[in-house]
Amino acid sequence: MNYKQLEDFYLFLLSKNSKIPCTKHGQYDAKKGIQICKYKNNYNIGFVADKNNCIVLDCDFDIQRNLNGVETLKKLEYELGTLPDTLTQSTPRGGKHLIYKDTGIKNPIGKIGKDVDIKYRGYITIEPSSINGAKYKFTNGIDKNGNFIIAELPNSWLNYINKTKNNFYKTIDVNNNNYQRKIINGNFQKMYEKCAFIKHCVDNASVLDEISWFYFACVLNSLSNGESLFDLYSRPHKDYDPILVNKKFQNAKKYNVNCNTISRCFAECKFCVYNQGGNYAK
Ligand SMILES: [Zn+2]
Hints:
2 domains; alpha+beta; Prim-pol fold
């Protein structure tokens, strides 16, 4: 690995064997041109995300402490679409840092799922650092000439990561896999009339955002004819694809989402008639 190109980034020194800064102002002392080869035997290296116009998806991993952000990220990719290849490093305990450009990032949330943090106004420890002999190591995002590839995040991910007034995102428990749903013979027409969220999904079917679409799949999973309804109301969408839509519907089975959950972010469902244990049979 040639560390020369890292020297074009804002870096600062951390104490050997640790993530603790060893300059007076820590990450605020970051500068370009830190000579990695000169320091790498006696210091670790800090990489400041926002100052480098980057954002980092930081997946924790520790079997003993039951941390598995790598798995969470895979699940999120299922909801939001596959992430593009980008500069990625493995961390000493088996976690991962995915480094993206911050294009389109405004006021990001701090955590995007169980054990996955966003590092933006902060720093990460970067290769060639090590902790107790275990190394930070680039595993992806280096082209055949040895240059870094730092990709941009797709829109669905930007929408998920940027804080917005109306985002539903933080209410999903992406690790709730054991949910047993009660299937009922609900009356969809009645649901459309009585639930503002359902109305929102149907009326905006052609431009529905990714997360509403997913929540809609969760709700329709409660209906015995939900699968065909979900397909029908997904057809106007610009990204409609019958196989993808079915996958989305099947995947939504795992999540306990109802008007009660939705009301935490979609205010209209706060007083929704279905906001009572999510019973759509009424
Ligand atoms: Zn509702």
